[in-house]
Structure formats: structure tokens, C-alpha cells
Design a protein that fits this description.
alpha/beta; 8-stranded parallel sheet; two-stranded antiparallel sheet; 10 helices; 12 strands; globular; cell membrane; alcohol dehydrogenase (NADP+) activity; EC 1.1.1.2
């Protein structure tokens, strides 16, 4: 099993990368350094994570002329945030990420969500009642502006994140530069089998965020299942003499899914890359498929009338009303 997938552009994308979502300032720089030092060649970033400057500090210490790694050896992804969907805002947003990361180009630039928010400096523009101020800018118009970034050489490829199959097809139907990736929540409790099959059929690679089930998500309710503590997974980990996390990451790799586990602990960062020295038997892959509950952990929710509901469900481009 190769440590790379080949995108429709011909680029080779390392199948395991370091995720930087929820990595707090003061930690993420050391995490990126630890990752690069133990062999990672793929770093996943986003403007909305508010830590790209610190990621850039780490990259500047390891990547570039006279450093341990050449720029071509490291695959860097960033993402366009929802408040930057107006076509005239796209280039500036990309250039800001590049400046923070200290790079002249990105290997991949994703539209973080299909939903546009009101433009401005706030990440989450809100009304007085706390609700989000939406914009009706269509993701197709945003995509057309992102295509110009490829033409300018600011990005090597563009892609999607949190798009459903219908929205992915909508972009494919009008794109000059086709989306190469759709980055979505994916783990054994949310296996995304239908979306994965669909994306494969149209030449779009799937990247799994929260590939280990995001046990540290800040809004987890007490009593919610924790994937890494699932006893069925524990039994498999014993069988293969690996950690539960390594078994899950190997499952992703064998399905051809790129995964970007997040950690700030050097020993775990290293362990998460050690998934190329064993293979899961076909029966065990099928067993892990049975864990699926179609359970999304990463959907912003709000309290309404005493119930937790999806925050952006009324947005015209909310992706999760479709089954996949």
C-alpha cells in the first residue's frame, strides 16, 4: 500500500498528514516540527483554525533553501473560510494564508464549507440573538474565483470540504479546474461509504478529517460513545499488536482515504504515521465497516427550546440534509 495517493492533477498527496484543527497556539508549532522531523510530508491547515502563523513559523525552520526539506517535499493544504466567499475576497484570503504560512504557493486550497457567511473580519458574524449572518453567495461563484488562483500559480490544485455528492457534482459540472479532493468527517462511526463510492466515480479523492472520531471535540456530551474506547477496536488492536488509533488509520489507508489525524503529543504524532508496516485482513476491514452509525460528531449545534439542533440547517447550501 503506497504512502501516497495520486490526485487527478497528477500530484502525489501523502495519505497520512498532520491535522492542525483545535491545536492551540503554543502547541501547534511544536506539533508541526515533531511531525516533519519524524517523516510527515503533509500538513493540513485552514484560516479558520487561527493558527497558520505558528504553523508557518515551524515550516520556516524546516522547509526551504538550506533547510532539511525542500518546498516540493511537503504537501500543504489550506482552506477558504465562509466569510470569504465573495469572488472579490478569494484572492486576498488565499494570499493572507500564504503570508501566514510563509509560502509562495499552496499544494491544495479547499472551500471549507459550501455555505457563505456575511463577509467581514469576524469568523462568525452574528446577530444580537447569536444567530449567524448568512450570505446567499453561491458556492459556484466562489469556485470560479478559486480557479483563478490556479491560473495565477498561487495554488497547485483546488478542492472541496464538507460538500455532499450533489454539490460535488454541481461543481464538477461547471469547473474549468476540477476539484481534486473532498475533505469530510470520516471514521468508523461515520464511514461515508456512499460518498466515498460517489467521489471515486468522479475522480475526487476523499480526505478524512477527525479520522479517529474527534474524542476531544469541545461539545461532546457526557455518555457519547468514544470511538477509540470501543471494545471491538480494542480487540483488533490486541490482535495486530497496534494501538486502536493505528488500526483505524490503517483502515482508512486501505480504503484509499487520506487521513489527517491531529495530535500535539510527539509520541502520538509518530505512532500515527506508523501504519505502513502491517495490513488488516479483509474480514477485519469488513468488521470495522459494521461499526458505522452514520453519526456526525462535527456539526455545529445550538440549543433551541431545550434541544440541540444543527446550527446552520436553514442555510440554503447546508450540506447535510442529503443522505450523502
Amino acid at each position: 500500500m503506497s504512502a501516497f495517493v495520486t490526485l487527478s492533477t497528477g500530484q502525489r498527496m501523502p495519505v497520512v498528514g498532520l491535522g492542525t484543527w483545535k491545536s492551540s497556539p503554543g502547541q501547534v508549532k511544536q506539533a508541526v516540527l515533531a511531525a516533519l522531523d519524524c517523516g510527515y510530508r503533509h500538513i493540513d491547515c485552514a484560516a479558520a483554525y487561527s493558527n497558520e502563523q505558528e504553523v508557518g513559523e515551524a515550516l520556516s525552520l524546516r522547509v526551504g533553501p538550506g533547510k532539511a526539506l525542500s518546498r516540493e517535499e511537503v504537501f500543504v493544504t489550506s482552506k477558504l473560510w465562509n466569510t470569504k466567499h465573495e469572488p472579490e475576497d478569494v484572492e486576498e484570503a488565499c494570499r493572507t494564508s500564504l503570508a501566514h504560512l510563509g509560502l509562495s504557493y499552496l499544494d491544495l486550497y479547499l472551500m471549507h464549507w459550501p455555505m457563505a457567511f456575511q463577509r467581514g473580519k469576524e469568523l462568525m458574524p452574528r446577530r444580537e440573538d447569536g444567530s449567524i449572518c448568512y450570505s446567499n453567495t453561491h458556492y459556484r461563484d466562489t469556485w470560479a474565483a478559486m480557479e483563478n488562483l490556479v491560473d495565477m500559480g498561487l495554488v497547485r490544485a483546488i478542492g472541496l470540504s464538507n460538500f455532499n455528492a450533489r454539490q460535488t457534482d454541481d461543481i464538477k459540472s461547471m469547473a474549468r479546474h476540477k476539484p481534486v479532493v473532498n475533505q469530510v468527517e470520516c471514521h468508523p462511526y461515520m464511514s461515508q461509504a456512499d460518498l466515498l463510492t460517489h467521489c471515486r466515480s468522479v475522480g475526487v479523492c476523499v480526505t478524512a478529517y477527525s479520522p479517529l472520531g474527534s474524542g476531544d471535540r469541545p461539545w461532546a456530551s457526557p455518555g457519547e460513545p468514544t470511538l477509540l474506547q470501543d471494545p471491538r477496536l480494542g480487540a483488533l488492536a490486541q490482535k495486530y499488536e497496534k494501538t486502536p488509533a493505528q488500526v483505524i488509520l490503517r483502515w482508512h489507508v486501505q480504503r484509499g482515504v487520506v487521513c489527517i489525524p491531529k495530535s500535539v503529543t510527539p509520541s502520538r504524532i509518530q505512532q500515527n504515521l506508523q501504519v505502513f508496516d502491517f495490513s488488516l485482513l479483509e474480514d477485519d476491514i469488513k468488521l470495522i465497516e459494521t461499526f458505522n452509525r452514520n453519526e456526525r460528531f462535527i456539526v455545529p449545534a445550538v440549543e433551541r427550546d431545550g434541544k440541540r439542533v444543527w446550527r446552520d440547517a436553514e442555510h440554503p447550501h447546508f450540506p447535510f440534509h442529503d443522505s450523502y
